[in-house]
Design a protein that fits this description.
Layout (H helix, E strand, L loop, with lengths): L6 E5 L3 E3 L1 H13 L3 E6 L4 E3 L5 E2 L3 E2 L9 E4 L12 H12 L3 E5 L3 H6 L7 E2 L6 H5 L4 E2 L4 E4 L2 E4 L5 H11 L1
Parallel strand pairs: 1-3, 1-7, 2-4, 3-6, 7-8, 8-12, 9-10
Antiparallel strand pairs: 4-5, 11-12
Helix pairs in contact: 1-5
């Protein structure tokens, strides 16, 4: 199934985003025909493991309504978005508009800080599970969890499945 008319924006930290979570998720989405743009707070962004540079299509404040979903990529760098008002507002806006809001690894905490996952089922990196539960979610521990338009994943090993699940839900 090709989804060429669907477009998503992936949000990555300016540094220390998780390589597999970005590259494998993006590959899975593009394989299904989803158009992917990438945003961050600076250009280029540098990955955590291989120190690969990724060219950014947009800076956070420039993200428009043209996307069918927003995806937050994890890794230790994702913590910069926990109090980034632009990132939190984007997550809330996409959720309120009924669009896909997805996050992997530690990034589901961004959805918690945005106030959009209370009373939802979600998963995340095991080390952040307690923090995620503090936002009022039911932590499942699954590789990938879907609750309405919210899609969460637990980390690098789930990256491909995460991308496929997002594509199926678009």
């Amino acid at each position: 199934m090709q989804l060429g008319t669907k477009k998503v924006i992936m949000i990555i930290a300016p540094e220390n985003f998780r390589d597999e979570e970005y590259f494998d998720t993006r590959d899975a989405l593009e394989f299904k025909g989803v158009d992917v743009d990438v945003a961050s707070t600076s250009n280029p962004a540098v990955s955590a493991v291989d120190k690969r540079e990724v060219q950014i299509d947009k800076i956070l404040p420039d993200i428009s309504d043209e996307y069918h979903g927003i995806i937050f990529i994890g890794g230790s760098g994702a913590k910069v978005f926990f109090d980034n008002q632009t990132a939190l507002a984007l997550a809330s806006k996409y959720y309120e508009e009924g669009k896909i809001v997805a996050a992997i690894c530690v990034a589901p905490l961004i959805l918690g800080y945005a106030g959009i996952i209370k009373d939802k089922k979600a998963t995340c990196w095991e080390g952040a599970a307690k923090d995620l539960e503090d936002f009022g979610i039911e932590y499942t521990g699954a590789n990938v969890e879907v609750d309405g338009k919210i899609i969460t994943a637990n980390g690098p090993k789930a990256s491909g499945e995460f991308g496929e699940t997002i594509a199926e839900n678009l």
